[in-house]
């Protein structure tokens, strides 16, 4: 039987209701009513009982020294606080512990269903208090990936591909932006934000995101660590990142509602449409999203678009002149002993004193920046050359290497060419002008210089002469090919007959043989 409500018994008695009627009204026994009234008279309690006296205190005043036992003698407050403190704890574990404690104190044990039923009654009578979150215009936007995917089919291969939906909304006007991507990687996440800000016409003061891997590295003890690319984007647009708590959907309620809205109004409406590209999906998504933004609210005046234009657009932060350039980060790269770091096929120099240290590399479409901690220690234009794999800045070299590098420069090669024979000099000058950046030709010039050491000055001059006579490009490869063909011809002269020697002594035979060896066509 439940604990009697002594306060109500005494109140009805004070209002001149008889004991039988009180028992019927409060659904308790007449004996309980009689005892309660008698004890109140014995204790000379003033009626009606003051509101300042709690039910527990009143029971103690009526029955001092009595331990009131109930069938459900459990502390629901302790259960609630224990569950809140440890996410791995369950009601069943607490019930088992309660059973052990009651057996030890020789009290009756509750069944698991009784335990749960009593705790459920407690939670219904003590609902969690929640308040409305007031969003200001231009203050925040919420972003997330939709849980449901769409599909498109490659009309050439017949393959079926997933389309992942990025969903975002402004927290004040609930203006929606949705876009489909082929994956949920970092590049897609950042690109979605760039186009989202463009669709909003401005930037909010902060972005509320979920704890997804492309945005958040870790979220513990009230401290959130975001991915470097996501932080860079936020800083570029002058906004602040804020991650919702783990499994705390109420911290980003608008985008959660928006996910449900687009599931019903976009994904469901497209269920019978066959798409053949991601672009087709996005065209349909943009069309349906525009309809949602222009549709009138059910419980508010106006529409999302109208609310954005009239109340929110003016207070959004301005967009930068150029959109953010997406960067790819490479973390914890070790600087090699040649003071270069490698990204794919290319290597970029850093100051030689950082040799052996760990650095982070930021690569965009146009530049490569290298950081040691938070300090940028080197910056290079991004290298796309098929031939030059190293990007080296002279100031990054040790002093002795800088001195050695200065010995081989344009003036040195031109000076060498000026004292060389005429055709060799012409070939060197041509090579020096064959690249958009003259430093790119130094290795070819040095290679030609080494050919003189190997084959002799006269043979090099003869090869260059043959090069220009037959309108071949002046390059190290062509010059070397002619020299090798000539060396092979000289070797065969000792073993072939006089007839074959005569046939091969003609210039046509010489150039023809070179063409076969080099695989080059003559101009």
**What is the tally of helical segments?**
20
Q: Which CATH architecture of the largest domain is right? A: 2-Layer Sandwich
Number of domain modules:
5
Structural class: alpha+beta
Number of strands: 15
Helix content: 40-55%
Distance between the termini: 110 Å
Radius of gyration: 42 Å
Account of the 3D structure:
- This protein is of the alpha+beta class.
- It has 5 domains: 57 residues, no CATH class; 48 residues, no CATH class; 176 residues, Nucleotidyltransferase, domain 5 (2-Layer Sandwich), CATH 3.30.420.10; 71 residues, no CATH class; 111 residues, no CATH class.
- It is 45% helix and 15% strand.
- It contains 20 helices and 15 strands.
- The strands form 4 sheets. Strands 1, 2, 3, 4, 5 and 8 form a 6-stranded mixed β-sheet that branches. The protein has a 4-stranded antiparallel β-sheet with strand order 9-12-13-14, with no helix packed on it. The protein has a 3-stranded mixed β-sheet with strand order 10-11-15, with no helix packed on it.
- Helix 2 packs across helix 3, helix 16 packs across helix 17 and helix 16 runs parallel beside helix 18.
- It starts with 5 loop residues before the first helix and ends in a 5-residue tail after the last helix.
